């Protein structure tokens, strides 16, 4: 047995034996729906347990709290977590985009200060990009950061802040010079959320859950050392952050950020659903649609493999990474919509309705599926990026 095979078996056994018992409350599907203290503490304790076992940040440098191992070890852990559908780890923004960003361009002091806290969930991170009046137009961000001596003073508002109620730090894009062209007047900060004058207010979602906040900044004074890079480099740093968020650039710490019904669950639902007195899975139209989903699913998997082999994507090196968010998020939204269509009139029953099929998880999954088509750039924005940067189409 090879070393990797032995490691895979060890990981499989660890997650099987250490899976936490089901709590007496409903767990969120992803880090974007963590809305109660009970949910948060349950998930944070789970992340700590995984890190203590050595299964998070395995490829991050050992001197900052990582494992110092080749990426393949973390890939094996991630795949096993997804296969066993264990609870997700909550510090997604820290593990997958703030952490890689700090490792890529942070100071030595910043790496020592922040990285281990990201891995062991002591320090939860959130992201301050979107604004109430600007949406996905990051270049037009208006939250002001005015230099005053050794501090910056923040005024304005950010919205759709995932984990805003629980985060200790925020990666923040702010305008430091309104006189300069919009791309040049932005700066990037690592902001302590406990700063006086910063107030996250929870937002109730369509599903009845929380998880997002609108975050208000009123004369919030942060030390100038919170600035990342140089003043005026915010746009460049934000774009690098988005390459981590969209999976274009590797370096993430690992773990899974979502546990939700998938294609195999939909096939099982089709077996249990009825069409004209027979299982829906026997309906040729249903089977045809399921096969289409399977083809897309397999296509995405093969594309991901192709992306790992530079020689196979040298002609358009960023094509796979730039398009993956668009493909995967839209695939999920359509899959959940299809699952509802299998339920007929029962599709209107939601979580909390004793007659809802499977406790209403399909309806909840459908509504939550829209968040991925909006966060990190809407599908329309993503399609524009692919059109312009991959296909070379002219700008609007």
From TrEMBL:
The keyword Methyltransferase does not apply. Signal peptide: none annotated. GO terms for molecular function: flavin adenine dinucleotide binding; oxidoreductase activity, acting on the CH-CH group of donors. InterPro entries: Acyl-CoA_Oxase/DH_mid-dom, Acyl-CoA_Oxase/DH_mid-dom_sf, AcylCo_DH-like_C, AcylCo_DH/oxidase_C, AcylCoA_DH/ox_N, AcylCoA_DH/ox_N_sf, AcylCoA_DH/oxidase_NM_dom_sf, Mycobact_Acyl-CoA_DH. Its cofactor is FAD. GO terms for cellular component: plasma membrane. Keywords: FAD, Flavoprotein, Oxidoreductase. Pfam families: Acyl-CoA_dh_1 (PF00441), Acyl-CoA_dh_M (PF02770), Acyl-CoA_dh_N (PF02771). The keyword Oxidoreductase applies. Residues 38-120 form the Acyl-CoA dehydrogenase/oxidase N-terminal domain. Residues 232-391 form the Acyl-CoA dehydrogenase/oxidase C-terminal domain. Gene3D superfamilies: Acyl-CoA dehydrogenase/oxidase, N-terminal domain, Butyryl-CoA Dehydrogenase, subunit A, domain 2, Butyryl-CoA Dehydrogenase, subunit A, domain 3. Residues 126-211 form the Acyl-CoA oxidase/dehydrogenase middle domain. Belongs to the acyl-CoA dehydrogenase family. This is Acyl-CoA dehydrogenase family protein.
